[in-house]
Structures are given as C-alpha cells and as structure tokens.
Amino acid sequence: MKLPVYLYGHPVLRKTAAEIAPGYEGLKQLVDDMYETMYASEGVGLAGPQIGRSDRIVVIDADPVKDSYPECEGRKFTLINPRIEILDGDTVTRAEGCLSLPGLSENVPRVEHIRLSWVDENFQPHEEEISGFLARIVQHECDHLEGKMYIDHISLIRKQLIRGKLSNIMAGKTRCDYPVRYAPKKK
C-alpha cells in the first residue's frame, strides 16, 4: 500500500527514531509498503520518519542511478537499526533532493567512505564498507532517523535563500505527484 510521505515541517521528521526489536508487529507489511511508496514517489531511499513512523528503518534501492554511479548497481536493501562509522574525513559536495522537501535540491557536503552496520528484516546482522554515491544515500536516509534533514548541512545563507520555499512546503502550497502529509496547521 502506498503511504503518504510526510513533508518538511511535520514534527515526526525532527524526532530521533526508536530502535526496532525482534517481534515488531507488521514489519514485513511495513517494509513492503515502504518500498511501494518509495517506487511510487520515484525515490531511491525512504526512512521511517518520512512515512510518519518514528522507527529506525530505511529502505534503499539505488539501482535507478547506476548509470551515473556504478557502485549503486543492484544495491537494494532494508536497514533496521543502522549505525554509520565515518571512515574517510574527506568530503565531497553534491546535489541532494528529498521526498520530504519536494521541488528543492541543494549541494550538501558528505564523506565518501563509511562503514555501515545494520540488521535486515529477519534481524540478521550485516556490516559493510560503502563508498561513493551509495554512501551519500545511506547517510541521507540515516540522518532522517536522527531527526535531521539534508538542509541541516547547508550554509545559513543558503537556508535564508530557500526560506520562502520551505515556508510554502510547511503551508501546504507545494504540489507533488505522490501522496503527502503536510505539517499540522498551527492554531
């Protein structure tokens, strides 16, 4: 089932997500729904908070960008309770977008080499070193689990320049080709 994507300004996007324990009710359906939502939204990653769930779960299918980033070919995985260790202090700045920030794209500095540990949907542990654009996707999605968004990594001047666009998203004045949930209206 396609779920609505929660947009900038919704409080769930700024909460630190909770760990998922074995026996999590409806986990298989949640994973299936997250992939369906991600594909319908034409994204390459989706985190629990983006569908209103403050849970440490991420789905990624980076294969659609393999032509530009070969390290993404065939990379589809579900991350539960992921942990990132930075392996390379050098950063590369590239444009990023986000399903929760429709119509925006900003240059974001991120490290190019990480070690990722997680459990899959069967709670089997995994650990892997990841580089390049795939590392960027993982960092972007894992930021959501910490209540962060890519705009938190841009300069204050850039934030000022996009303030109007952010206000429009919060006010529900943004159109999307996928189901969304806007921030609650302030009384």
Describe the structure.
This protein has 187 residues and is α+β, with helices and mostly antiparallel strands. It contains four helices and nine strands; from the N terminus they run βαβββββββαααβ. Strands 2-3-4-7-8 form a five-stranded antiparallel β-sheet. Strand 7 and strand 8 form a beta hairpin.
Q: Would you summarize the structure shown here?
A:
With 187 residues, the protein is of the alpha+beta class.
Please mark out the parts with pLDDT under 50 across 5 or more consecutive residues, or reply none.
none
Radius of gyration (CA) equals 16 Å
Q: CATH H-level name... which superfamily?
A: Peptide deformylase
In terms of DSSP E residues, the strand content is 25-35%
Please give the largest β-sheet.
Answer: 5 strands, antiparallel
Which CATH architecture would you pick? Alpha-Beta Complex
Mean pLDDT: 96
What string gives the helices and strands in order?
Answer: EHEEEEEEEHHHE
- Helix count? 4
CATH topology: Peptide Deformylase
**Gap from first CA to last CA:** 32 Å
Q: Note the overall shape.
A: globular
Query: Given this structure, which CATH class is correct?
Result: Alpha Beta
Biggest sheet: strand arrangement: 2-3-4-7-8
Helix content: 10-25%
Number of strands: 9
Structural class: alpha+beta
The number of domains is: 1
Structural key phrases:
single chain, 187 residues, alpha+beta, Peptide Deformylase, 5-stranded antiparallel sheet, two-stranded parallel ribbon, 22% helix
